[in-house]
Design a protein that fits this description.
Strand order of the largest sheet: 11-10-9-5-2-1-13-12
Helix content: 25-40%
Bound molecules: 1-deoxynojirimycin, calcium ion
Structural class: alpha/beta
Length: 616
């Protein structure tokens, strides 16, 4: 029995064992299946998140405020803005509701082109302060939740940079290849343009080694030879050093120009017309190694940090811009185009503005560029910067009766378009062009060179000075920040490096802080609105309406079932807009309440701007 029992027991135990094993296997199998399914789900989830996080980025949602450090705030009375001065104004900057500060170059520089000629990438320009001042400034920015984007100027450096001093000393110097040389025994080099040079040439003869060197800008800005891998690794190492210090990104000066065809072939006008839209900048942006170098930069530097990059898209076109910013290509994040700010120039003159520039063309430019980045990549939007006149003088109307309204209207445009807005210091106040009457007041290398060119050619200098008042003179946009109505607008206790605009008595921070209807208060409202409605105003779809309307820029932005209509009068005669079947809802903002609607037609006052929800 016991045996039987034993057997029975044994067989029972055996069966139980088998049953138990199967059960376990079954349970494990179920568990594995469940796990696999949930894993699969979470992979989908992750994919989804990755897709979303690919689309949503802090630098897409940010408003960038550009500061020209030379002109923002002087702390020591030498007439030049500096880092300590800027640090002292960070509470003001934060109060604007902006997220990122882009600072024009602050590195050591002899200042031939106000810092765009760097003599030491690892030090601070003496006039601006010290590295300690920089560290304090960065820490104070970060404390306030502000990010810092620096200017990266690496197409060229200064002729006073140690690399160039070495390179020019002999043909066999180890740094010789850091730059582009053309030995004079080969004759004159094939033409390349050089901005800021009176003779217009991008080559300069250097007698010391009987050679020419290449400089796309002034002769004080020799072009670096990116075809030399050593140059690339020097630059990447320098960028890594700045990122390790904690900077949050780079705006990259004329980055599309870095690569060169070093055989320097002769480019005929015919070839330029055929292949490069007749434009030298397009040729210069077409160097064969460009995308390889940017990918290397991304791999060796950018991919290691959560930072943003912006290409100054010189010479890029609607068909080439995506190559820089397509996320899959792993190069840069954003790019800015010149089509908008180049509109309205009279051909054959230097940045002479046609006062009757065409709004229909303006709308087409911004709409076409919106569609470039509609599916992928990301654009930017700007109307002014240190290379442009003041936005209100150029695109609005700086006459006293229209200045405030048109400045608010332009702010509405910039902050309601898709693409990251780059907003230039002082534009929040509606600062205007200074309109110098004499060449002696100008400091800018570009204006001085253009003046000399016209003088040498026996041209009309008076006309040139007139044209610069409304057109392109860069100093118009570089005058000191207007803090208050006191001497020098509170910018300096000394003599400012560039004259302060007389209109500081009405246009200044102190006065505008006290006035609820000021352009400054309006700007703050707009930054708030963009944040509160980021789904619509940052990411939402853009659709141009009534494209042939000569006075009004009208468009919708929409997302998640929400849709708004943006109406902007760009004219002193106001303008009108036909609503058709649209039904108006809540007004989000309006620079001149109320909105006049009669029989389905909205009549806008001069430079009126509004954003209003649509019910259908
Ligand atoms: C573009 C910069 O914005 C401009 O100010 C500068 O003069 C040139 N690049 C040369 O660096
Ligand atoms: Ca100073």
């Amino acid at each position: 029995m016991s045996f039987i029992n034993k057997n029975i027991n044994e067989s029972y135990n055996f069966k139980f064992l088998i049953y138990f094993m199967f059960k376990q296997i079954f349970t494990v199998a179920i568990l594995i299946t469940v796990l696999m399914i949930s894993c699969n789900n979470s992979t989908n989830q992750t994919d989804q998140n990755t897709i979303n996080s690919k689309q949503e980025k802090w630098w897409k949602e940010a408003v960038v405020y550009q500061i020209y450090p030379r002109s923002f705030m002087d702390s020591n009375g030498d007439g030049v803005g500096d880092l300590k001065g800027l640090t002292g104004k960070l509470d003001y900057v934060k109060s604007l509701g902006i997220d990122i500060i882009w600072l024009n170059p602050i590195y050591s520089s002899p200042n031939a082109d106000n810092g765009y000629d760097i003599s030491n990438y690892d030090d601070i320009m003496k006039e601006f302060g010290t590295m300690d001042d920089f560290n304090v400034m960065l820490a104070e920015m970060h404390k306030r939740g502000l990010k810092l984007v620096m200017d990266l100027v690496v197409n060229h450096c200064s002729d006073e940079h140690e690399w160039f001093k070495q390179a020019r000393s002999s043909r066999t110097n180890p740094y010789r290849n850091y730059f582009h040389w053309w030995p004079a025994e080969k004759g004159k080099p094939p033409f390349r343009p050089g901005s800021f040079e009176v003779d217009g040439s991008g080559w300069r003869f250097d007698s010391l080694t009987n050679s020419y060197y290449l400089h796309y800008f002034s002769y004080k800005q020799p072009d670096l030879n990116w075809e030399n891998p050593k140059v690339r690794s020097e630059i990447f190492a320098m960028m890594n050093r700045w990122f390790k210090k904690g900077v949050d990104g780079f705006r990259m000066d004329v980055i599309p120009f870095i690569a060169k065809d070093t055989t320097f072939p002769v480019i005929t006008q015919k070839e330029l017309d055929k292949k490069y839209e007749g434009r030298w900048d397009v040729y210069m942006a077409s160097g064969p190694g460009l995308h390889q170098y940017l990918r290397e930069m991304n791999e060796q530097v950018l991919s290691k940090y959560d930072v943003m990059t912006l290409a100054e898209g010189a010479g890029t076109t609607k068909s080439t811009a995506m190559l820089l910013v397509d996320p899959e290509r792993k190069e840069l994040d954003m790019s800015y185009h010149f089509d908008g700010v180049s509109l309205g120039y009279v051909p054959g003159y230097f940045k002479k503005m046609n006062p009757n520039w065409n709004l229909v063309d303006f709308k087409k430019i911004y709409s076409d560029w919106d569609s470039v980045f509609a599916e992928k990549g990301w654009g930017t939007i700007y109307l002014g910067n240190h290379d442009q006149p003041r936005m209100v003088s150029r695109w609005g109307n700086d006459a006293p009766e229209y200045r405030e309204a048109s400045s608010k209207m332009l702010t509405t445009f910039l902050l309601s378009m898709r693409g990251t807005p780059f907003y230039y210091y002082g534009d929040e106040l509606g600062m205007t062009n200074i309109k110098f009457d004499k060449i002696e007041d100008y400091r800018d290398i570009e204006t001085l060179a253009e003046y000399a060119k016209i003088k040498n050619a026996g041209g009309d200098l008076k006309q040139f000075i007139e044209d610069q008042k409304t057109g392109g003179a860069r100093d118009n946009g570089r005058t000191p920040m207007q803090w208050n109505a006191e001497a020098n607008a509170g910018f300096t206790t000394g003599i400012p490096w560039l004259k302060v605009n007389e209109n500081k008595s009405e246009i200044n921070v102190e006065a505008e802080e006290k006035n609820d209807n000021s352009p400054l208060k309006y700007f703050k409202k707009m930054t708030g609105l963009r944040k509160d409605h980021k789904d619509v105003l940052v990411y939402g779809k853009y659709t141009l309406l009534d494209k042939d309307n000569p006075d009004v820029y009208a468009y919708t932005r929409e997302a998640n079932g929400k849709k708004v209509l943006v109406l902007l009068s760009f004219r002193k005669n106001g303008g009108s807009f036909q609503l058709d079947k649209m039904q108006l809802g809540e007004e989000w903002i309006n620079n001149m309440q109320p909105l006049q609607v009669k029989e389905n037609i909205i009549s806008l006052k001069p430079y009126q701007a509004c954003i209003v929800e649509l019910k259908n």
